[in-house]
């Protein structure tokens, strides 16, 4: 098992990992708002990797037997002139995707990926790392709690239509 920077030869594996994550999110979405659009597999990885490229980010993958079995993507948060009005705006990295294939979970791969991304963020002078976690994803919340993360913001939702 090794953690490497993303290489294009692993694009199909990355697509599979993102689909696996989205299917899991669908299975726990109590609001039934998430969907797996027919174009998701072909477009999402490309969009995510483009976001990484355009925001001074990185994508690292966990490779086992020449197959990507986990991935993490992260970007550097950009602030605009108005953000400074009510926020100190320390340099922050954001984890935008983290998934480890269900076939290899509980082997420390998630910890290795998050450590690699935190190391990258530190090398750029980031003071904080942010990650949005789906509220119904108890496994991810526990993982991040164990990794030293805590909640700072909370989004509430209420259905008001039919």
CATH class: Alpha Beta
Structural class of the secondary structure composition?
alpha+beta
What spatial order of strands do you see in the largest sheet? 1-2-3-4-5
How many distinct domains?
1
Helix content: 25-40%
CATH superfamily: Gcn5-related N-acetyltransferase (GNAT)
Write down the CATH topology: Aminopeptidase
Order of helices and strands: EHHEEEHEH
State the total count of DSSP E strands.
5
Shape: globular
Distance between the termini: 49 Å
Unreliable stretches, pLDDT < 50, 5 or more residues?
none
Q: What is the radius of gyration?
A: 16 Å
CATH 2nd-level architecture: 3-Layer(aba) Sandwich
Account of the protein in words:
- The structure is a single chain.
- The chain is of the alpha+beta class and 162 residues long.
- The chain has a single domain (2-146), classed as Gcn5-related N-acetyltransferase (GNAT) (Aminopeptidase).
- The protein is 35% helix and 21% strand.
- It is built from four helices and five strands; from the N terminus they run βααβββαβα.
- It has a five-stranded mixed β-sheet, sandwiched between helices.
- Helix 3 links the parallel strand 4 and strand 5.
- Helix 1 (11-28) packs across helix 2.
- The longest helix has 18 residues, at 11-28.
- It is globular and about 50 Å long.
- The model has no long low-confidence stretch (mean pLDDT 94).
Outline of the structure:
The protein has 162 residues and is α+β, with helices and mostly antiparallel strands. It has helices at 11-28, 40-54, 109-123, 138-146, and strands at 2-5, 58-64, 67-76, 92-100, 128-131. The protein is built from 4 helices and 5 strands.
